[in-house]
Amino acid sequence: MEWSKFKDNFHPSYWPKMQKWVESEDCDKLYAFLKERSRLGHKIAPDSRFTWRIFKELPLDEIKVILIGMDPYNKFIDGHSIADGISMSCSITSKLQPSISKFYEGIEKELYDGLNLSYNQNPDLLYLVKRGVFLGNSAYSVERNKPGSHISAWEPFQKYFLEEIVGYSGIPILFLGSEAAKLKKYVTPFTHTFFLKHPVSASYINDEWSTDGVFGKINRIIKENNNFDLQWLDTYED
User: Fold this and answer.
1) Which domains does the chain have, with CATH numbers?
2) Ordered alpha helix ranges (H), 90-213
3) What confidence tens digit (pLDDT) does each residue in 86-131 have?
4) Biggest alpha carbon–alpha carbon distance for the chain
């Protein structure tokens, strides 16, 4: 791998901490695994140009909260992956998936009690990333129709990300779903951590997704840490 080109996958703010991992044996093993699965004919999502997208879009020093969900969407439509490199976002098809619909509904109910009538259920969550929300996954790749297929391959990177890159930054972390929750063991002490069921779980039983007041708690931490009022919903007035 040409490391100089690989460096272009990340915003420059990550590189001082990311370089050690990129030059490690764990990185070599991950890329060997991905190349081998592709060689064997397995379709992998998202498209390779989007694998590290979240690290390109959101500078490290601008992260206000981290959400870690499941692996990327494993479905393809007309040969194109739904996944766009941002957790739950589906900008490529511009068609809302159950995860993102429940995500919006749960937040709106908690923070606005059903009274916010001017927000847009945007299939593209880049607007939220630009506000400082790191929307990551338990794994940053997955095979078509095989959820969880790359989780173990990505765990060494997740360990490095949480221990070495995020470390003692004080950034609150929300884990969505059981696979994401397994990564909590790598979070450094004194970090505010939260756990919720993944929004897609509510869609399976056609029920509301309960946020248990978590987003209000996170907002208070962000206000204390950054003196910033995070707006989770994409309103038409923005």
Assistant:
1) 3-235 (3.40.470.10)
2) 98-112, 126-129, 151-160, 178-181, 199-204
3) 999 999 999 999 999 999 999 999 999 877 778 899 999 999 999 9
4) 52
Q: Is 216 helix (H, G, I), strand (E, B) or coil?
A: helix
Helices and strands: H and E segment counts in the chain: 10, 10
Q: Which amino acid is at 146?
A: K
As given in the structure block, the two tokens for residue 199 are 């929004």
Element (H, E) at 25: helix 25-39
What does the alpha-carbon distance between residue 180 and residue 137 come to, in Å, rounded to a whole number? 8
SS3 call for 238: coil
Give the tokens for residue 125: 């969550």
CA 95 centroid distance within chain: 18
Which residue is listed with tokens 């969505």?
A: 176
Whether the CB-CB separation of 72 and 84 falls below 8 Å is answered with no
pTM score > 0.90 for this model? yes
